[in-house]
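Pasting two entries for a bug report.
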Amino acid sequence: MTDQALPQRSDELFGQPKGLWVLAGTELWDRISFHGMVAMLVLYMTGDLLLDPARVATVIGFPAFRAFLEATSGPLGPQALALQTFGYYYACVTGLPLLGGWIGDRVAGRKLAVGGGAAMMTAGHFALAFDRTFLIALVLLMCGAGLLRGNLSAQVKSLYADGDPREVNAFQYYYLGINFGAAAAPILSGSVAAIWGWHAGFAVAGFGMLIGLMVYLGGQRWLPAEQQRAPAVSGKRPPLTASERRRVLGLLAIWPLVVCYWTAQAQIWNVYNIWLRDTVNLDVGGFSVPVPWFQSLDGLAPGLFIPVVLWIWALQARRGREPDVLTKLAIGSIIFGLSVGLLAAGPLLANAQGRAPIALPLLFHVTSNFGAMYYAPVIMGLYGTRAPQSLRGTLVGICMLATAAGSVLSGWMGGLYESLGPAPFWLINAAICTGAGLGILIGAPVLNRLLAQDEG
C-alpha cells in the first residue's frame, strides 16, 4: 500500500481517478512549456543574444559563467558557447529530478515540491524575456524542473490501491500527455517566435507553465492527502546476495555505452537545430518551415512507432525469434547511429545554394525514432527489472544520469561542429552511437551472464 489516503472510487472520469487527469494535465502543460523553450534556446543564443557583445555584457553573472566554461574548453565563440550552455542546462534538467525527488520524499512533501517547482519554472520562463536575467532564468528553470519532475509522476501510484487493474493503463494516459505536449509545443512556440520574436515565444512557454500550475493547484481536492512518514526503522540494510552483486556489476558495466547513445541523442536538441537553420532548404511552396517545428516529430513518434515495434516483437515471439533485451538495445543504438550518419550526406544532396533537401531531416526523424523505440524504454526496463530491490531507485537514477552525462558531452563536442564542419561532426556522433551498439553485441555473452535473473 501507499503512504497516502486513497481517493474514493466515485471520484472517477473516464474510468480513472480524477487525480490522474490532474497530474496528466499538469505534465502536459509542463511539457508544452519545456519543449517549446528548448526548441528555441540554442537558436535564440546563436542567432540573437550572443551576437551582440553589448547585450551579453548586461547579463547578470555571464563573465563568471563564461570563465567557468572556458577554463576547460579554451576560448569559445558565440556558437560553441551556446552549445555548451545548452549542454549543461539540459544535463541539469535531466539530472536534478533525482535531488528533487529526495527533497519531496524527505523534506518538503511531493505536493509542495511540485507547486514550488512549477512556480519557479513559470518565473524562469518569464525571466527569459529580459537579457539581464537570462542566466537567472536558466537556474530557475533547472531547479524548478528538478522539483516538479522528481515528484509529479511519483504521485500517480498514490491514486491506486495495490492490485487495482486500472493502474496498468494509468501511465499510458499519463505519458500520452507528455507526448502530446512535446509534439504541440515546438509548433506553438516556434510559430509565435517566427512572427513576434524570441521573447514572445518564451512568453508562450511561460503562460503554458502558469496554466500547468493552475491545473495542479485547482485539482488538489482530487489528489490524496499526504500523510506523515513513519519513522525509519533503525538497523542496517541486508547485504546484497552474490546474484544481486553480479547484476549491479552488469548494470554499471553497460552504463558507459548508455552514455554514448544519449550523447548522440542530445545533439538533436542542441547542434541539430543549427544544422537545420544553416544547411537545409526549409522553403516549401514559398513557406519557410520554422526550425522548432521539426522537434514536434519526436513528440509524435512514440504514439506512431511503439505499436509498430510491439507488433514486430510479438510476431518475432510467435516464431521464437524475438531478440533478447541486449540485442534490442544494440539494434536501437545502431539504427539511431546510422540515422545520425544520414545527416552527413547533406553536402552530397545540396542544391545550388548549398542547402540539403528538407526530405533529409524528415527521413532522419523517421529512422532515428524507430531506433529510439528499441532503446529508450528498453534500457529503463533493464535497470528497473535487474536492479536489486534495495538499490532499485538508486540504479534507475544512475540510468537517468546517463542522459545528463550525454548532454554535457554533447555540449563539449559542439565546438567540433565549427572546427570540422557538419559532415565530419555527424559522422563522429554516428560512430559513437553505432559503436556503442556494436559494443553491446560484442559484450553480450559476458553481460548476459552478469545480468541473468535467478530462476524462480
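Entry 2 (this is the one that rendered wrong in the viewer):
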Amino acid sequence: MHTQPLVASDPACAVLAASPIAQALVAADGRLFYANPAWCEQIGDLPPAWRTVGHNGGPVQIEETGRRMTIAALADGRRLLSVENIAPETRRLEARLRASEQRLGAALAAARLGTWRWDIAHGTIDWDASLRGVVGLGDTDPTPDAAAFSEWIHPDDRERVDASLQSALTGPDDYDVLFRLRHCDGAWHWHRSRGQVERQDGKPVAMIGACIDLNDLKTTEEHLARKAIELERSNAELEQFAYIASHDLQEPLRMITSYLGILQRRYAALFDERARQYFAYAIGGAERMRDLIRAVLDYSHAGAGPLVSEPFPCGHALADALANLRGTLAASHAAVHADPLPTLRANRTQLIRVFQNLISNALKFRRAEVAPAIVIRARDSDEGWVISVSDNGIGIAAEDHQRLFQIFQRLHAIDRYPGSGIGLATCRKIIDRHGGRIWVEAQAGPGATFAFLIPR
C-alpha cells in the first residue's frame, strides 16, 4: 500500500511517509492510493465501508475502533484520511465510557425511566431514546413540541402539571408532578416527572429533567387501597356482628342459668346424685358461655370507635388494674412489684384492660404450691417505651409463642386452666391500635415475660 516509488514521485506521499499519524490517500474513484507506515501498522487495508465516505471534509467516527478520522479533500480530487493517534489508555477509557453508557441505557429502559429537555425559547422538547421507548415512539416518529405535549396529558391532570411548571419557572421550586400520560397505543399511564430550570441572566431558557413510568406501582397501590377499604369495612361489620350477637345472647343465657339454679335449689330433694351432677354440668357450661360472651364483647370493644389517646402516668392504669383484681390477688397470696412507670400517650381504659389481662394470666397459670410473684418493669427504647410483666408461673414453650395471641387459642385443657382464650388476643388488638406490638420474651427457667411497646 505504500511503496518507495510513490514516496519518491509524489510530494504528498513523501510528507505522509514521515508522519507519525496514521494517514492515507484515497483516489477519486474510492481506491486506496497510498497508506503511510503508521496507517499500515494501525489500520491495515481500507475497509469497504470507509470508501463511501463523502468528499466534504470533517470528522467521521470509525465504528470499528471507536477512533475518529478526519477527511480532507485535496485539489487533485484525492482525499486525505487522518486517524487520531489515541493513546492506549485513552482508548481503554473511551471503551469503558461506551460500555457504561450502554449499561445506563439498559438500566433506564428496564426502570422505564427517560430524560428530557425543554427548550423554552423555541418551544421544542427533546426526549432520549429510553423515554421514547417507554412512550412507544419509533425512531422516526417526531417528538411533540411544548404546545402539542399538553394533549398527551390526561385532561384531569393538565391543571396540576401546568401549576407545577409555572411554580418552577417563576420560583425556586423544582418541577415535580405526578400525572397520567397517553402512550402511543392510546393507554393512559401514570408518570412522575421531575426537572430543574436552566437560567441565563435570571431568565428561564430551558428545563431538563427525567420522567418515570409508575403505572404498575400506581395500579398496585390503588388495588391495595381498595382492598384496605374493603377489609376495614368487613372488620367493622364483623365487630358489629360480634357485639350485637354477644349482647343479644346474654339475656337468654341469663334466663337459662337462672332457671337451672332455681330447679337445682327447689327440687334438689327430688333428684338423685346423677341428676344433680347433670345440673352442675349444665350450670357450669352456661357460666362458661357467659364468660366467653363477655370476652367476645371485650374483644369487639377493643377495636370499636376512634382511639382517644392522651398523656397520663402509666402507673395509674396499673393501679386501677390491681384494684380490679384485689380479691383474686389476695386469694392467691400474690406478690406484685412494679418499677416506676413512665408517662405514656395512650387510651387509659384500654391500657387498664391490657394490664388486667396479663396479670390475670400470671395468677391463673401459677405453679402448684408456689405463691405467684409478678414484676412490672419499663425500659426506654428507640421506638418508644417497653413495658414488661413477668411471673414465676408454669412458663410457655417457645413453639407456642406465636399461637398465644390468636383468638380462641388455648394451650391447656379448660378443666385445668379455665378461660375463654381471648384475653391475649384482646391485648394484641389494643396494642396494635396504639401502633405498638406485644410479644413473649425468651426466659430461662420457670415463668413467662410478656412485653408490649407503646410508641412515643
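Dev reply: Rendering is fixed now. As a check, the viewer should reflect this: Residues 4-86 form a domain with the Beta-Lactamase fold (CATH 3.30.450.20).
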